[in-house]
Amino acid sequence: MATPRGRARVSRGSSLQAGESQSPARKPTVRSLSHPPPPPATMEPHDRNPISYVQSFGPHPYHHQEKQQVLDTGEQLMVPVEVLRETNQAAWWKFLVSGAVAGAVSRTGTAPLDRAKVFMQVYASKTNIMNLLGGMRSMIQEGGIGSLWRGNGINVLKIAPEYAIKFSVFEQCKNSFCNQDNPQPFHERILASSLAAAISQTLINPMEVLKTRLMLRRTGQYNGLLDCACQILGREGARAFYRGYLPNMLGIVPYACTDLAIYEALKWVWLYLGFHSNNPSGMVSLLSITLSSTCGQMASYPLTLVRTRMQAQDTVEGSNPTMRGVFGKILAQQGMPGLYRGVTPTLLKVLPAVGISCVVYEAMKSALGVAK
Fold first, then answer.
1. Burial category of 127 from C-beta neighbours within 10 Å (exposed 0-12, middle 13-18, buried 19 and up)
2. Dihedral sign for Cα atoms in the order 289, 342, 101, 191
3. How far apart are CA 248 and CA 207, in angstroms?
4. Distance CA 261, CA 247 (A)
5. How confident is the model at residue 144 (pLDDT cuts 50, 70, 90)?
6. Contact at 8 Å (CB) between 257 and 312?
7. What does the pLDDT look like over 58-92, one tens digit per residue?
8. What mean pLDDT comes out for the span 95-118?
């Protein structure tokens, strides 16, 4: 009896090698296509390496989830990604209008936190300990509830030129050196976003100075935007409109690099945790952008603080500050924690700014007939 079984075993092996069907006695062991085979006993080296793990899926499932789809993170205004992809010239302006309205509503909704941040950056010190509630209480006592929105008008007004400049620069970068068929490499995206931010900030820096002065003004100090500009020009000259320009430019690189690096790392994490869909959920995208933008703001915050102090220096001390002088003074008087004065309202406004921006943007697209 052993010999036939041995022959049967050899016969089955040869028939499998020849591509023939198995005998009826072996059918119960055939696995259904609906049940994938069990994982191998040994794991490949890339199974615990996020980079190779992501690469093993081929084209990146998140390649079409560009970061520019969220419009306002509290500090940075982004060009909607649909504008960069839109080929219908009759529709692209609708995306820009939707983004501008979303940015205006977002900035207006978070204006009290924005003014509290500037107030704490300029006036808080070791001798004048100021928290968020204390700063807002001081502003209300000085000018009433409406004073919490001082400077919001110019902050909303500068959305239009900021959008137009960034959109133009993105278009030029896309046409000049970005590969439009495949996802752009990390360095190309850093270069494009940094150039867009640098050029836009160069042209709207005078509006940034006006915004800072109007946020810090006392009741009755200025009779509006034009009066503020005339007083600055008469007392300090045209150069005052570019105070804080150097730290503003230097802060672009750490913000852009940290922001995009964290965003890419989070995409790897989502993929590693099983989010393999080509269209990740809105909550995953919102969380990724919120975390990456927060890290970017923290990386560049000391330079942002120095920029604000330089723009407001005449309001505080009437001197002509330099970036090195402001850094040295902060470190001498307050130490390293002084470089992060006002960071609490900065962090608190990121999530509501992103959320409001997303909701209003989608509503505006629906109203204009471009909802997808």
1. exposed
2. negative
3. 13
4. 21
5. very high
6. no
7. 334 333 344 544 456 556 666 555 555 555 555 67
8. 90
Phi first, then psi, for residue 55 (nearest 5°) are: -65, -25
Encode the chain in three state secondary structure: CHHHHHHHHHHHHHHHHCCCCCCHHHHHHCCCCCCCCCCCCCCCHHHHCHHHHHHCCCCCCCCCCCHHHCCECCCCECCCHHHHHCCCCCCHHHHHHHHHHHHHHHHHHCHHHHHHHHHHHHHCCCCCCCCHHHHHHHHHHHHCHHHHHCCHHHHHHCHHHHHHHHHHHHHHHHHHCCCCCCCCCHHHHHHHHHHHHHHHHHHHHHHHHHHHHHHHCCCCCCCCHHHHHHHHHHHHCHHHHHCCHHHHHHCHHHHHHHHHHHHHHHHHHHHHCCCCCCCCCHHHHHHHHHHHHHHHHHHHHHHHHHHHHHHCHHHHCCCCCCHHHHHHHHHHHHCHHHHHCCHHHHHHCHHHHHHHHHHHHHHHHHHCCCCC
Q: How far apart are the first and last CA of the chain?
A: 71
Chain Cα centroid distance, residue 259 = 6
Closest listed residue to residue 214, CA positions, set 290, 157, 282: 157
Token pair of 327 as six digits: 């850094």
Q: So what's the pLDDT on residue 74?
A: 58
Structure tokens, 210:
């006006």
- Report pLDDT digits (tens) over 215-256: 999 888 899 899 999 999 998 899 999 999 999 999 988 888
Residue 77 has phi, psi (to 5 degrees) of -95, 130
Q: What CA–CA distance (Å, rounded) separates 296 from 291?
A: 9
Q: Residue 335: exposed, middle, or buried by beta-carbon count in 10 A (0-12, 13-18, 19+)?
A: exposed
Q: What region does 352 belong to: left with phi over 0, alpha with psi -120 to 50, or beta?
A: alpha
pLDDT averaged over every residue in the chain: 75
